[in-house]
Design a protein that fits this description.
Layout lengths: L10 H12 L12 H17 L6 H9 L8 E7 L70 E7 L5 H11 L5 E6 L2 E6 L2 H10 L8 E4 L5 H10 L4 E5 L2 H13 L5 E4 L12 E6 L8 H5 L1 E11 L2 E9 L2 E5 L18 E2 L7 H4 L2 H9 L6 H10 L8 E6 L2 E6 L7 E3 L6 E2 L3
Pfam families: PCMT (PF01135)
Organism: Streptomyces hygroscopicus
EC number: 2.1.1.77
Length: 427
């Protein structure tokens, strides 16, 4: 592809090259009428991610160059003010608005995993309203392809739209560096496909090695699993989701792209012992504390990467009861792991001045220490310690105890993990 010095290549050529090089057993999917055009816009996405400092690992760059994202988002939704005509496609360019206001282009992209993730916001889902994976349905505020007259609603873009301009917008949006809302139910966003640049940062931070076995918590559209299968081979990848509609859709999307990793329906907090032990676990939904089952299904020296509070924690696993690590500097706003209890309440901010609340590093501390530090205490700590960024915080797991800390595990500042009052992230 152009980003690597070669010419534009079609998806079938890329598939054959990957299969020969990695022995993934990748099979040719159905004929893709968008393959050639998609390869060109995919090149632009990769260049954009690289220009932003991502995809420094050539293996991950190759995966993003060759795995066709548009096969995993056969339709998605835009939100915004619709035209009085009610015609779909009148709310702006593809990817302009996304995730019903949950995550936009400021990097606050949210999960790529649907079930196993809370259904109230973002993840990366698949099936439409009738449960069939690639139908363009899925209840939305706009009805069947149109807009709600004169109101804020959703506009569906899909690959089989009879209007060529809307099909072009769908394809362009599939390769925009934004999250894409992929499931809407009763006017409420259920899941989305994550911002590709955030996916790239997370995958690279996973530090996989050839031969590693990876468990993904939150199957979503299957796109992230396809990237992992491209890098490691499909036999080394298991992706899990709570919602059978989402796993069915992900399985179909993966097959269309020529990948067949293990796609399992189950509770993300319990992991997937069937294919354990794992060298890496990556979650695409936030946890309040690290599920013990994850550690128990890891090999010694495994790495777990999961959203926690509004950050990404990387934990090095010593054994089934011990792990420790630090947060990445990257902000990450994901929805909670589904099935882990009742919805959390919002983090209180009463009595705080407005200026600190505009600072992302302070909001991170509010979330991390929610229920254990009063907001005014959090503000005093944040100012006294020089407004620390996420990378100064970490998490330790020792048996039944889990805690977050600033600078050192046994240092002056630490807070038990787990939601005593089930407070919701302040965003």
């Amino acid at each position: 592809m152009g980003s690597t010095g070669g010419g534009t290549r079609s998806a079938p050529d890329a598939a054959e090259r990957v299969a020969r090089r990695q022995g993934t057993g990748r099979r040719a999917g159905p004929a893709d009428p968008y393959a050639q055009e998609a390869a060109a816009v995919r090149t632009g996405l990769v260049r954009e991610i690289v220009a932003g400092g991502g995809l420094t690992d050539p293996a991950w760059r190759a995966a993003f160059e060759e795995v066709p994202r548009h096969l995993f988002v056969p339709y998605y939704f835009e939100t915004g003010e619709t035209e009085e005509t009610g015609e779909a496609g009148e709310t702006g360019g593809a990817g302009e608005a996304s995730a019903a206001g949950e995550a936009d282009t400021d990097g606050r992209a949210v999960g790529d995993g649907g079930a196993g993730c809370d259904g109230r916001a973002v993840g990366d889902g698949g099936a439409g309203g009738d449960g069939r994976a690639d139908e363009p349905g899925g209840a939305s505020a706009t009805g069947e392809g149109g807009g709600v007259r004169g109101t804020v609603g959703c506009t569906r873009l899909w690959r089989d739209d009879p209007h060529p301009l809307r099909r072009a917008r769908w394809l362009a949006g599939a390769y925009a560096d934004v999250p894409l809302a992929t499931r809407v139910r009763d006017g409420e966003l259920i899941t989305s496909s994550s911002q590709p640049s955030l996916m790239a940062r997370m995958l690279q931070a996973l530090r996989v090695r050839d031969g590693d076995r990876v468990l993904e918590i939150g199957a979503g559209t299957g796109y992230n699993a396809a990237l992992l299968a491209h890098r490691l081979g499909e036999a080394h990848v298991t992706t899990l989701d709570l919602d059978p509609e989402i796993t069915e859709a992900a399985r179909n999307h993966l097959a269309a792209a020529g990948f067949r990793p293990a796609v399992v329906t189950g509770d993300g907090a319990r992991g997937c012992p069937l294919h354990a032990p794992y060298d890496r676990i990556i979650a695409t939904c936030a946890v309040a504390s690290v599920p013990p089952a994850w550690l128990g299904q890891c090999r010694p020296d495994a790495l777990i990467l999961t959203p926690l509070a509004t950050g990404l924690i990387t934990l090095r696993v010593a054994d089934a009861r011990h792990a420790e690590g630090r947060f990445l500097a990257t902000p990450a706003y994901f929805v909670p792991l589904r099935g882990s209890g009742p919805p959390p309440e919002r983090v209180p901010t009463c009595g705080l001045p407005s200026r600190p609340l505009l600072d992302d590093s302070f909001r991170f501390l509010l979330n991390l220490a929610a229920g254990h530090l009063e907001p005014v205490e959090a503000l005093a700590l944040w100012e006294h310690e020089g407004r620390p960024g996420r990378e100064r915080y970490g998490v330790t797991v020792r048996g039944e105890r889990q805690w977050a800390w600033l600078d050192e595990p046994e240092g002056a500042y630490g807070w038990p993990l787990g939601p005593p009052d089930r407070l919701q992230s302040f965003v």
